[in-house]
Amino acid sequence: MDARHPEQTLKITFKSRLENMDAAEKKRLDDIEKHGCHVIQVLAEDDCPPFSYSVGIEQSSGYPEVIIIGLKRELAHIMVNE
């Protein structure tokens, strides 16, 4: 059995995951650290409107994540960041 403290194990696990992340995943984490969230945009498809959503707001501030449906990417991005 591993004698390390859970906090140490978590740090080691996170570090090993970070080393295996691609550039896009690292950018998301960097955005969350620098700006408090990362915004993901999903394009419209068939009858479904485009939408944008936040990742990291709850982790960084304790507030719920945000989803914006039906607006252009640029406007949705501004709204999530405000």
From TrEMBL:
InterPro entries: DUF4262. Pfam families: DUF4262. This is DUF4262 domain-containing protein.
